[in-house]
Amino acid sequence: MNIIFRLQAYMGKRKILLPSSLLLAGLSSLFTVAPLVFIWLIVKELLTNNKNPANDMIAYYGWCALGTALIAITLYFLALTLSHLAAFRVEVEMRRQAMDKIVRMPLGFFDRNTSGKIRKIVDDNASTTHTFLAHQLPDLAATLSMPVLLLVLLFMFDWRLGLATLLPVFVAMTIMGIMMGLGGKSFMRKYLDALEQMNTEAVEYVRGIPIVKVFQQTVYSFKNFHKAITDYREMVFQYTLQFEKPMTTYLTIVQGIVYVLVPVGILLLTSAENYTEVLVNIIFYIILTPLFAQTIMRSMHFTQNITLAKEAVDRVENLISAEVHSQSSHPKPISSYGINFNNVSFTYPGKDTKAIDSISFTIKAGQHVTLVGASGSGKTTIARLIPRFWDVDSGEVIIGANNVKEISNKELMQNVSFVFQNNKLFKTTLLENLRYGNESASMKEVERALDRAQCREIIERLPQGLQTKIGAEGTYLSGGEQQRVALARAILKNAPIVVLDEATAFSDPENEHLIQKALKELMQGKTVLMIAHRLSSVVESDTILVLSGGKIAEKGRHEELLNNKGLYLQMWNEYKKSVEWTIKKEAV
Ligand code: ADP
Ligand code: MG
């Protein structure tokens, strides 16, 4: 039952809604018994006074049956109205809290949880709680209140008949208990896991279709998705099979109460002194049994539904509670813009080798430092530790005088610009895309940023200039153009610290030239950590760090490193060869 309290926590000031709804639902269920009792009274009147039935009494009972039935319906309607209000409240609040936390997640969180998966988890589980609160809980209240009344009624007239009704019910409940034990909770978890896996794969599959098509990979790409579906089917199938026998027995017994009742009734009738009275009693029990059976049937799914609702709340709460970054309660401001890595090591969750290992280096305010190294050597990881994509395992990342953990997220985000390979542009106007960098920027500032980022010709080409919606009506920008818009955004943001990760990858030569110009504008006067894609942009760096296997292998300026005749010289020679090769190829 503590699930109800957990859900109440999302109810804010409307905590009264749910209890009121449950109370009304309970009352309504008591009133559904009343018409049956009145109908039985009519039968009784007809049987006992069969010579001369009191017509006015019968009419009176009839009206009472109708009246109580109407009251029951009205109460149920009110109960559902309140429960729906409560459910919407919880659903909205759950989504709100989830979103609120998700925006405060460390960025690394989104590496492991695709946006499709996050959306699914929050959406599906919020609506599971909706069904539970709006429909199942009022039904639960109704069911719980009914047996008490039924028990009283059952024993009120003839305990022997009462017992005859109750015995099968008891057996049925026992079987139900056994069935609940089969799989039960652990099954629900597995079931939801499988469902989630299938949904995630579906989203990934759809998202991957362009790539699938380009590489003609139908069978391979389908494999994960297909496996998720067959796993799901297999599991549900296995689970269902084990219920085959107990379920049939259970249903037979519940629906078959009357088969016990009738023989016992006949037995009683044969030995009865007052034949009519016993017959009237038997009819009473026969009228009531269907209601009893129905109540038990409804209650059968409760344990399941409660488990489902609990799982739903768990899933949302796990998703959002797992990894919110610790935020210092007394955040410190960023006073100056130097960066310092002090013996930093970091291992990705679930991996056993360190992605970076005891890294130490300093970028003085205003200096430009470049990371180079083979793929997988740890460059991106280092860059991402600055904006706290993840927190370090050991060592410190310091900006100015303070550990990044002591700086508030807001301050950190305001002072650091990152430009990554796949900077996303939002499906909105170009102007709004730019203003994400700086909401209060004037038009003049926007124009200036566009010029500095070499975006002028992009704007002029677009039908509605800055007001053009990206991604709408065939307005798409090439990768290089998107990159330049992203740089314009960063320029507009004008943060004193700039982190660039392979910002020029995937661009064609013309774009490359424009992007280099835009990068220069962006980096001017800033503290910069850059991951170089092409070594040509490295030459002017204040310091170059050569990474290998998560460690700093060499460190120095371009000429120093060349003279070192180590890893860097090797990379430089290879780079020169590839450039000459390109030039030769273009000359042909
Ligand atoms: P680089 O940018 O130099 O190519 P990375 O910093 O991306 O290198 O990767 C360093 C190491 O960490 C690699 O071994 C890589 O496989 C691993 N790695 C990178 N990103 C993740 C991630 N999100 N989860 C797990 N391991 C990762
Ligand atoms: Mg990288």
In short:
By secondary structure, the protein is an alpha/beta fold.
Description of the molecule:
This protein is of the alpha/beta class. The protein is 64% helix and 10% strand. It contains 21 helices and 10 strands. The protein has helices at 2-8, 17-48, 55-102, 109-112, 115-157, 159-181, 184-215, 218-241, 244-255, 257-270, 275-300, 302-321, 379-385, 409-415, 430-435, 443-452, 456-461, 479-493, 509-523, 558-564, 567-587, and strands spanning 339-346, 356-363, 368-373, 394-399, 402-403, 416-419, 497-501, 527-531, 543-548, 551-556. Helix 5 packs antiparallel against helix 6 (159-181), helix 6 (159-181) runs parallel beside helix 11 (275-300) and helix 10 (257-270) runs antiparallel to helix 11 (275-300). Bound molecules: adenosine-5'-diphosphate and magnesium ion.
Question: What is this structure's SSE topology?
Answer:
Blueprint: H1 2-8, H2 17-48, H3 55-102, H4 109-112, H5 115-157, H6 159-181, H7 184-215, H8 218-241, H9 244-255, H10 257-270, H11 275-300, H12 302-321, E1 339-346, E2 356-363, E3 368-373, H13 379-385, E4 394-399, E5 402-403, H14 409-415, E6 416-419, H15 430-435, H16 443-452, H17 456-461, H18 479-493, E7 497-501, H19 509-523, E8 527-531, E9 543-548, E10 551-556, H20 558-564, H21 567-587
Parallel strand pairs: 3-8, 3-9, 6-7, 7-8
Antiparallel strand pairs: 1-2, 1-4, 4-5, 9-10
Helix pairs in contact: 2-3, 2-5, 2-11, 3-5, 3-12, 5-6, 5-7, 5-11, 5-12, 6-9, 6-10, 6-11, 7-8, 7-12, 10-11, 16-18, 18-19
This protein binds adenosine-5'-diphosphate and magnesium ion.
Residues 379-380 line the site of magnesium ion (MG).
